[in-house]
Every structure is written in structure tokens, then in C-alpha cells.
Amino acid sequence: MTNYLLFIATIGSIYALLALSLNLIWGGVGMVNLGLAGFFAVGAYASALITTTGHAPILAGWALALIVGGAAGLVVVLATTRLREDYLAIVTLGFAEVVRLVASNEIWLTHGTDGISGIPGPWRAALGREYFNAAYLPILLVVLLAVFLLMRRIDRSPYGRALRAIREDAQVAQVAGKPVLRFKVQAFALSAAIAGLAGALYGHFTSYIAPDLFLPLITVYIFLAVASGGVGSPIGALVGAYLLMTLLESARFLVEVIPAVTAVQRAALKELLIAVALILVLRLMPKGLLPERIPRAPLNQAGGKP
């Protein structure tokens, strides 16, 4: 039971990293990224390949996941600079599917649908599976705390205020002298890098990755987590991710006790219970459990005005 709870907490923390990644661009700049699962997969495969085939240290794999994820985000956002926001969402969704198809078909590189197994984890061999989960969770929490503090710092900085101004009205922000395109590119690349890091952490925890693990449903789950927690709120993204993980596991146990239903019906009921729970949260709290609180701009010393 303890090992199961550690596993759920670890996966919930990885979802929390993805939620912080999405919250930066959706809640911060107003850009919709439907390809979050693609950047998640890119980071996972980059770290897995360099540590299994290249026999590099795990930290090198995590660093490469950050770089490759950020570079992929940079390519995607620069390729869509002339598109409207709704077209950006479509392009990112297509990017995620391209990544999954490449991982499924480029057997020489990714082993295709067989996936990559034997991905090393920190002290996995010495600790054994029972103690590895207990050791990996604190590492993940440290990374999550660092990313959360970075997001909170950005949220309260002049840079974060500029991002929110672009979110509210990009044209007004541009007229005010803000380099809108540069801010969007930077935010998207940073968000993609965090998603790539989350993918690397996931791969080294499970020791196995395959294309079927990076379906668009992951992106849907993370959108639900951010929406229920509070769009634009870093702490809300964290709470929403852990709430979502709790709902996923609770629904799985609830449908098991329902008599006279097939396995397919249980799966459908599970998704239905999750949907109803999240609809109730958003109906009762439209802005989420912890809605965004925009901090006041600092007062200047001369006139005492913002």
C-alpha cells in the first residue's frame, strides 16, 4: 500500500510539473498548447536515449531533456508566428501526433512500438523497487519546488506583468512598447523545456517508455488540472494536478464495486465520474479552487504611485 501511494504521489508530481508548464503560457500569455504530450515525449525520449544508448549520466539526460524540449518549443512557436492563436493550438496538436508517429515508426532510433526499456534511475539497483520509489519522490519534489518558485518569481516580476498584459490584449501591449513576439517565444520555449524535463523524470521513474504512453489524453488531463486549480495561478496548477490524480485513482476504485458492468463500461464510467467531478468544481468555482491574484505593481519612490 505504501509503495502504491508513493507511486501515485510521484505521478501526481510529474503532472504538477506539466501543469506549471501549461499554466505559464495558457495562464500567463494566453497561448493554447494542445501539444503538451509531444514535448513531454520529446524530453522522455531524449533522456532515455542518451542514458541507455549513450550511457551518459542521468543528470546529463535531464539537462538534455530541458534543452531539446526548449528547442522543440522554439521551433514550433517560430513556425507559427504569423498564425492566429486558434491555429497555434491546431499546429501544436499536430506536432504532438508527429512526435508520436515518429517514435512509433523510426525503429532504428526509438525501438518503435516496443519502446525503450531499462532506463536507469538514481540508485535503482542498490535500493531495489521497494525503496526506489521512496527515494525518487523527494528528488522529484525538489525539482517541482524549484520550478514552482521560478514560476512564482516570474508571476510577481515585471516580466510576468508584461506577459499578463499580452494575454489581456497583445495589441495594446505592443503599442505600450512591449516586444510581444519575443515574450511569446521566450515563454513558450520555457514552457516546452519544463514539459521536456517532466518527460525525462517520468522515463527514469518508470524505466520504460513507449509511444502509447504519450497520447493526447495527457494534454486533456493537464488542461483540466489547470482549469480546476485556477488558470494563471501557479499554486492553483499544483493543487489542480494533485486533485486530478486523486480523482483518477478514486474513480478507478469506485467503478470496481459497481456490479454487472463490463471492463469497457467500467472505463467509460471512470471517465464519466471524473468529468462530473470537474464540472461540479468549475460550476461552483468558475475561476478554479485557487483563482489568480494579480499582485500590485511596486510603488516608485518619487511619487508614491505605481
Present the secondary structure layout.
Elements lengths: L1 H26 L8 H17 L5 H22 L5 H21 L1 H4 L5 E2 L6 H33 L1 H11 L1 H6 L4 H27 L1 E2 L7 H13 L4 H23 L6 H22 L22
Helix pairs in contact: 1-6, 1-9, 1-10, 1-11, 2-3, 2-4, 2-9, 3-9, 6-7, 7-9, 10-11, 11-12
Explain the overall architecture.
The chain has twelve helices and two strands, in the order H-H-H-H-H-E-H-H-H-H-E-H-H-H. The protein is mainly α. It has a domain at 2-214. A two-stranded antiparallel sheet has the order 1-2. It is globular, with a radius of gyration of 20 Å. The mean pLDDT is 89.
- Gross morphology is globular
Q: What would you report as the Rg, rounded to the nearest angstrom? A: 20 Å
Detail the poorly predicted runs. Answer: none
Give the distance, in angstroms, between the N- and C-terminal Cα atoms: 54 Å
Short description:
By secondary structure, this protein is mainly α.
Entry keywords:
306 residues, mainly alpha, 74% helix
